[in-house]
Amino acid sequence: MAADAQSAPQQQSSLSFTEGFLLGQLSIVILIGAFIKFFIFGDPPSPEHTASARALARQNHDHGHKRSFSVPSFPPGGRSGIRVSSSNVLRYPPRLTTPIILAKTYYNVNSHQPESLDWFNVLIAQTIAQFRTDAHQDEAILTSLTDVLNGSQKPDFLSSIKVTEVSLGEDFPILSNCRVHPVDDGSAGPDGAKLQARMDVDLSDLITLGVETKIILNWPKPLTAVLPVALAVSIVRFSGTLSVSFLPSASTSTASSNASAEVPLQQPLSTTPTSLAFSFLPDYRLDLSVRSLVGSRSRLQDIPKIAQMVENRLHAWIDERCVEPRVQQVVLPSLWPRKKNTRGPLGEEEDALGLGATETARDVREEARREVEEERRKDREHREREAAGFAEGLRWRSKAEGGGYEMPSGAVRVHDSHND
Q: Does the pTM of the predicted model rise above 0.85?
């Protein structure tokens, strides 16, 4: 009886351990199965749902934030920091406000029909075509992409990245429905609200970048495991609204106070260059096609979560740079006509100027040629004098070796006169 009583608790403990072990293994299998099903092989959401969700998230994120750029406002007496000349030679025109500019260009923002921008699409297409042609020469784009991908920002757990596929597409973006309207974002000065052009952009193409790399696991020791990864990202379609604004140059001066005299000191003028600011509205749409291949022997192809991670990363990159309220500013060059920028056939006056310039250049070349010839002549005369001196020395040495030394005639005459 005592033995049976001791064996009963041992059997119960062994059964509880077995049940716990099996339950733990079953839990691990369920977790692994759920991870594989929902994380690796889960169906991605539809592009329409993803685009609407991203647009709503951008609007909620940007709600209450002002635009990050504005046209500088100037006081009623004139632009800040601009020194008006006291002479009457240079006369300044009256202030041009936004309503005056619209009236002088016969543009009514309320009734003007949107423009098609067909001519601008042709110019953009020619520019992109030339860019694609230049990129294929000497594989310049391949070298540039390889250097960028393997730069200092590459994570340590990735090996060298190799570009396997590059396609710049064959089609061109189409801009349409352009309209100009004033925008009052709270930064309008006495000139009124600034003007902004908005146009629809649509691009349906296949722009692809394919890379290969290896994910290196360096824990608990270096090169513990290596996982090959191949990835190809293609832009299938991009559509959105592009906003373009003109930011004129402005000169501002800052005042600082002297600590000892407590007298404000006027600092030099700081001028902001004329620039063109552009950005996209938050409701843009970017459709991507992501192809992935993970593994060396047993490979996993087109994992949905990898595609979602790449899409989220690319959308975040665009949102941080050129989606309102953030903008990209491009500094414009000076639009004043200059002679050095002139190209084409020359007129009569330009021919005369060109002839004068040619004659001046010819005179400069002739003068340089004469200087070179003079230097050569002096060098030749110097060499001739050295050769003559060397020959004279040899002649005197040969006479001395012959047993006779003939004093110069001048010395003899001096001796004779002395005897007399």
A: no
Helix (H, G, I), strand (E, B) or coil at 137: helix
% helix, strand, coil for the chain, step of 5: 45, 25, 35
Taking every pair of Cα atoms in the chain, the longest distance, rounded to a whole number of angstroms, is: 171
Distances in Å between the Cα of 221 and the Cα atoms of 22, 157, 210, 229, 398 are 32, 13, 30, 21, 91
Buried b (16+ CB within 10 A) or exposed e, 251-290: eeeeeeeeeeeeeeeeeeeeeeeebebebbebbbbbebeb
- List CB contacts of 121: < 8 A, sequence separation 6 or more: 172, 173, 174, 175
pLDDT at 261 over 50: no
Tell me which long-range contacts 87-95 makes (C-beta under 8 A, separation of at least 24): 95/190, 95/191
How many angstroms separate the CA atoms of 276 and 314, rounded? Answer: 25
What is the rounded CA–CA span in Å between residue 225 and residue 289?
A: 29
Distance CA 184, CA 98 (A): 11
Per DSSP, what are the bridge partners of residue 237?
Answer: 204, 287
Q: Tens digits of per-residue pLDDT, 97-150?
A: 888 888 888 888 888 899 999 999 999 999 999 999 888 887 778 888 998 999
* Distance (Å, whole) CA 112 – CA 368: 65
Q: Is residue 95 a contact partner of residue 75, using CB atoms and an 8 Å limit?
A: no
What one-character DSSP code corresponds to residue 80? T
Give the tokens for residue 299.
């490979």
Which residue bears the tokens 């060059």?
333
